[in-house]
Amino acid sequence: MTESIAPQTPDGLLHERDARGVHRLTLNSPTSFNALSEAMLAGLQQALHVIAQDAHARVVVLGAAGKVFCAGHNLKEMRAQPELTYYQQLFAQCSRMMMAIQKLPVPVIARVQGLATAAGCQLVAQCDLAVSADSATFGVNGIDVGLFCATPSVPLVRNMHAKQAMEMLLTGGFISAAEAQSRGLVNRVCSAAELDAQTEDLVQAILAKPREAVRLGKALFYQQREMGIEAAYQLAGQTMACNMVHDVAQEGVQAFIEKRTPSWRT
After folding, report:
1. Which residues fall within 8 angstroms of residue 181, CB to CB, at 6 or more apart?
2. C-beta of residue 144 within 8 angstroms of C-beta of residue 172
3. Angle CA(139)–CA(190)–CA(67) in degrees, nearest 5?
4. CA angle, corner 126, sides to 248 and 243, nearest 5?
5. pLDDT per position in the chain (266 positions), as tens?
6. Which of 78, 86, 230, 213 lies closest to 145 in space, CA to CA?
7. Contact 16, 4 (CB under 8 A)
8. Distance CA 99, CA 30 (A)
9. Domain boundaries, the chain
10. CATH fold for domain 211-265
11. Angle, nearest 10°, between helix axes 84-103 and 119-126?
């Protein structure tokens, strides 16, 4: 059974949750190409806050309605207020939302059915995992209007090699879904007809694992990435020790020794 958490609106964000603890966020503004307007950013921030408070949350699937996944920031909205203070607040708002995805204790899977550009490409890069239709394309083409995609570059260069990211940022060129996969931006590429099935396959794989181990692992993954190797090993060792004394690991190891299925898989 699926419940709607945010009321359905003709133009905004849809938020649903099923009985398994799978939250689905859908950018539902196809007429504006699902742009990250101030309202959309606020809606995403609120939804991520709700999910963070849900003790039974397991996975988030972030998708979009229409032909475009996300065309980035709303340029008309930005042009209407040509003030430094406004732009600083807008990009800070966007960065807070992106970081909320990383800080969420459960994995976030981007379900990309179409074009993802500028902050839309950033959104894909910020998610933990991504499944893409083979017809989707990806770009950070703010440079085409004189605006270097600085904030999108942050997760982009953490997904792919620096020179590959820099070429996209400097030229505004787009890459195919297949290229995005080979460069590390997305995990899986499939036909549009298989997009839901491939996304669900990842969801099921995560649901089969204990929530606590996933929570610890996701937090460690991003923390250690920003550290020097010695500090990273220290943090990783402490995380594994804390994980090992947890009931799920004790049960998992004992089940392995006894050649049986762990109780949390039943």
Report:
1. 132, 187, 188, 189
2. yes
3. 55
4. 15
5. 677 775 555 558 999 999 999 999 999 999 999 999 999 999 999 999 999 999 999 999 999 999 999 999 998 998 898 899 999 999 999 999 999 999 999 999 999 999 999 999 999 999 999 999 999 999 999 999 898 999 999 999 999 999 999 999 999 999 999 999 999 999 999 999 999 999 999 999 999 999 999 999 999 999 999 988 898 889 888 888 888 788 887 887 788 788 888 887 65
6. 78
7. yes
8. 25
9. 2-207, 211-265
10. Lyase 2-enoyl-coa Hydratase; Chain  A, domain 2 (1.10.12)
11. 20
Is the separation of the CB atoms in 143 and 171 below 8 Å? yes
Q: Domain 2-207 belongs to what architecture? A: Alpha-Beta Complex (3.90)
Sign, Cα dihedral of 227, 233, 238, 243: positive
Structure-block tokens of residue 133: 């239709």
Equal CATH topology for 2-207 and 211-265: no
Look up the pTM and report it: 0.93
Q: Which two tokens stand for residue 94?
A: 């966007």
Rg of the chain's alpha carbons, rounded to an integer? 19
